[in-house]
Amino acid sequence: METLAQLEALCERLYNSQDSVERAHAESTLKCFSSNADYISQCQYVLDNTSSPYALMLASSSLLKQVTEKNLPLQLRIDIRNYLINYLASRGPELEPFVLGSLIQLLCRLTKFGWLDDERFWEVVKEATNFLSQAQCHYAIGLRILNQLVSEINQHTIGLHATRHRRIASSFRDQSLFLIFQISLTSLFKLKADAGSKLQELSLMLSLSCLSFDFMGTAYDESSDEIGTVQVPLTWKPVLEDSSTLQIFFDYYTMNQPFSKEALECLVRLASSRRSLFSDDAARLKFLSHLMQGTKEILQTGIGLADHDNYHAFCRLLGRFKINYQLSELVNAEGYSDWIRFVAEFTLKSLQSWQWAGSSVYYLLNLWSKSATSVRYLKSDKPNLLEEYVPKIIECFVSSRFDSLQSELSDELGEDPLDNVEVLQDQLEFFPYLCRFQYESCSSYLMKIVEPIIQSYMKEANLPIPMNSYELSITETKLAWFTHIVAAILKTKQMSGFSGESHEVLDAEISACVLQLINITDSGVHNKRYGDVSKQRLDRAILTFLQHLRRCYIGDQAVFSSKLYTRLSELLGLHDHLLLMNVIVGKIATNLKYYTKCKEVIDHTLTLFLEMASGYMTGKLLLKLDTVKHVILNQNREQFPFLENWECFRSRTTLYYTIGMLVFMEDSQLKFKSSMEPFLQVFGRLNSTPDALFQSDAVKYAFIGLMRDLRGIAMATNSRRTYGFLFDWLYPAHMPILFKGLVHYADIPEVTTPLLKFVAELVLNKSQRLAFDSSSPNGILLFREVSKLIVAYGSRIISLPNKADMYASKYKGISICMIILVRALSGNFVNFGIFELYGDRALFDALDMTIKLMLSIPLGDIFAFRKIAASYFAFLETLFNGHLSFVLKLDKNALMLIVGSLELGIKDLSEKISSQCASAIDNFATFYFNHVTVGESVTSPVALSAVGLIAEFPELFSRILRTLFEVVVLEDRGNQWTLGRAILSMILISEEMFVNIKAQILASYPPDRHQRLSLCFDKLMQDVTLSLDPKNREKFSQNLTRFKSEFCAK
What we know:
mainly alpha, 54 helices, 73% helix, XPO4/7-like, ARM-like, nuclear export signal receptor activity
């Protein structure tokens, strides 16, 4: 590139061209500016001599990349910084906004990266302040510099170690942040008369940035309710206690400018200031009273609340009152009675305007619910007035939800909250606490409004044909909402201190309404409406209610309540938990019998059934019920028609997992065999099916269903005895059908996936269930069957042509094969040495085929599909742990690909994968150390292979060691202990490799840091001996922690 004009033309093409080829050519030509440090002076030349905004943008963005990614000498960085300050002062006002923003970001990035290196970088605040004393254009530049600086320091920058980032942020907080906040306040006071100006907006944004700073380094959203307070430093106390600070933000809000939302956001953060910041209770009460007065005036006038952003921020501000202050403080504050009245009126209007209010109203409900739950602790004599307003809010919430249903049902494009669990939980998160506050009046109100609806629904059930479907949908949706409210109220009993006999009686009364509803939903014409969406929503609401009722009053965690059952006995004749369980199981059985296509209801029903079977007490109680006995003995399509629905095939596993748990709970082999009779019939039909007909749809679906069902049964075996029941039943009589299925369906993932998942469950040694007798060959026999299945599947799938969806057609099955082998190899139910001893190829064939399958997946695809990556690296860890001799016998290309993938895996963001790779490397290096480094003589073929591998590919293992160092030093990982084990073993097998890595790492840092960093490396090996015993490893781990801390320090 010979002239500046050519550069300007290229830059314009880079940023403006519509031709992707032309843009790519320009990017390639100009890449040198951002990648080569020698071009830094060229960037300065461009800044000095061009007027093209695109050329200026290239120079600025290139410098930004260089500063971020390269370790530039300190003096060069200071020179660039000084140049930028002068450049912004002289040419800043005439620059395009995007160029100005980029140059300011460059200045702030330089400042951040150099903050701990030289105190001259601290002067940027003073220099930005100089801009504020000049004309408006320079004033704006000064504010933009300070805004960007606070933002840059606060946000983590890629490439900057998290520990160093925190040290920079802490130093900046202590040295400059308060001064910047004071500058923002001074600007706000100074510019107050300059209505609507850009300077006002920049000043407000600066205040907001300062108040949003991550003061404690916890990297949370400080406006969230999870933390609740903003940890403002103590030095800020005089400014925050000064009433003019709060007032200036209220004043800017009442100006009703486009940036009034920012003023409210500042108030939200000020309202969240930590309680201990204030001098005493009087100062905190004064601050609270000011907040109350300011918000009361906004509530009185309604100014700005027509803007939805302002409305949402204002609701958040009101919500902060109870999060950060005690109810006693609110009640004792001046003007509380007027304030709470205005808040109540505002809440009622918001609930009535539910379409406008949206999710904002839940900040208000949070305020009321937290206030209501605090009344019991209130000792003040002053009236809190909650008893007056809470009932009105409850009634308004319920009536507004009911009123909104008609609009929601007519809006076909809108999403019903009853279909979205997350939205529903948001809507009902706080409301139940209000109900519990005045539970008697609230429950009376709820029953009063729902009883006529239930009566109407009962009459509709007795009609010969259904009435108007729209009206029926409205009725069922109202009942669903009521049921969800009752469920949420019961849920609060588990999560709060609301208890007592009176509450249990009221729980019984509102629960009786829903229990009564259960009979109606499945009677008369409703018995033929299981395909209607509104009925499905109602049944899902009933299931949610039954879940919470069970958790509160039935089961291992529930406390038996005589008052609840006494009242239920009076109302419905349910005098104990066994009768109540019978009602729940009856509903489960009805749903499973009549819902044939609605997967959501079926899955919800099965979840409830599984929860009940999982509890020790509830499981035992279930076995006493005739309905459950009938279910166990009649597992057929008449009892469970959904079993034949392809869309619900996944649900079969959950059903049989539950049935299996109940069967095994009785610990009877006779009852187990009796329950398996339906499966014997299926096996019999499959065995008698000739090969020519085996691939028909009927046989295929029967086989898939069988595999899913058996997987559920296998999941339920949690002891050695119950697993023995299943294994003896399955082997050897029924294993051939699995092999037959793989032979016929190897290319059909819909069949092979459930089959392989069943096998994966079968070899999972959870709870040590695969503990066969010492005289039993079952462990070996099981592994041989697994080996045959893997080889049969792999030999067929590996030769199939690639398809568009490689994950579904091949990768998923290969991934499950790796999981099967990982579980089998690490299950500790087979002595694998016996296979080689007796010339049995089962182990060799399984390993050989699985590795071939594994290597058939491109490395890029392995990392792209996270489930495959998880099984791939788990397999490698298992291989390197117990079968290293097999690995080292692989051909060099395959071995290099595997070891190279371990290097990439160490860098992976998943700590589990990173740890697995480090463990594999450590196992290899430990083997090398024990058999080569400190071995008397290298004679074994495996050790010789290891020696040859490192000798032939020294650069690969050198890269692995460097990668381990870089991950430990440059990243904050929770698995440093595992990574450290691999580092030590790699260092001990080759001191020369460690010396080279040390030199390479030092060369990547500026010369002025070499001496200190070299000393860090020396300390790393201090008191570490030539040994891999636990004591030496622990010493190295301690040294590594200190090394990381000192290496990242200034």
